[in-house]
Amino acid sequence: MGQPRDLHGLARNTIVIFTSDNGGERFSKIWPFSGMKGELLEGGLRIPAIVRWPGGGVPAGAVSEQVMASMDWLPTLVAAGGGAPDPAYPTDGENLLPTLTGGAAPRPRKLYFRFRPGQQRAVRDGDMKYLRVEGNEFLFNVAKDPRERANLKGRQPDVFARLKADWE
Q1: Cis omega before residue 48 (within 30°)?
Q2: Smallest Cα–Cα separation from 33: which of 114, 131, 160, 105?
Q3: How many separate helices (H) and strands (E) can be counted in the chain?
Q4: CA-to-CA distance for 143 and 146, rounded, in angstroms?
Q5: Phi and psi, residue 57, nearest 5°
Q6: Which percentage of the chain shows pLDDT scores above 90?
Q7: Coil, helix or strand for 31?
Q8: How far is C-alpha 168 from the chain's CA centre?
Q9: For residues 61 and 56, what is the distance between their CA atoms, to the nearest angstrom?
Q10: Does the predicted model carry a pTM greater than 0.90?
């Protein structure tokens, strides 16, 4: 089939992003994660993000472990266009352009989630995640245990208490 034609020479300087929200749809294969769309288990939170910007320094085939959220796209795309968000209207996201272009290592993030059904709440801080679903509480290391099988609540009570307090 070959390469797609670029009749107007715009492809090199066009940012293309493919992503989703809140996990895969109900027929998606989300292995190795548990949970699904609409849940705060990793299957409902982890989604792919694919970025193509050959003229902007996003290396082809590069993979990043950077934790990000959809709200990061606004400041990242504004920075890619050479601008900065208006300080009078600060964004909730972070500019991740240095990480996307390979100029910076992934940064730790603390993200908060809630979803009304099941009274779900979660805090992700680095590799650790506090999760509460219908009153049941968990602590997972989602880097070492992406399937969320080993509840570390009793083994790491200080981390559990800190993340729970962060949520509250």
Answers
A1: no
A2: 131
A3: 4, 6
A4: 6
A5: 95, 10
A6: 54
A7: coil
A8: 22
A9: 14
A10: no
Rounded distance, CA 138 to CA 25, Å? Answer: 25
Q: What is the mean pLDDT of residues 99-121?
A: 88
What is residue 98's predicted lDDT score, i.e. its pLDDT?
93
Structure tokens at 91: 């964004």
Which amino acid type is present at position 142?
V
- CB distance 48 to 19 below 8 Å: yes
pLDDT digits (tens, 9 = 90+) for 34-51: 888 878 988 888 888 899
- In Å, what is the CA distance from 77 to each residue of 26, 66, 74? 30, 16, 5
Cβ burial 101-112 (10 Å sphere, 16+ → b, else e): beeeeeeeeeee
State residue 4's pLDDT score. Answer: 65
Q: Quick one: which H or E segment has residue 167?
A: helix 157-167
d(CA 70, CA 34): 21
Averaged confidence pLDDT in the chain: 89
At 123 the three-state DSSP class reads strand
Give the total residue count for the chain. 168
Write out pLDDT tens, residues 64-97.
889 899 999 999 999 999 999 899 999 999 999 9
First-residue to last-residue Cα distance in the chain: 55
**Can you tell me the mean pLDDT for 146-159?**
97
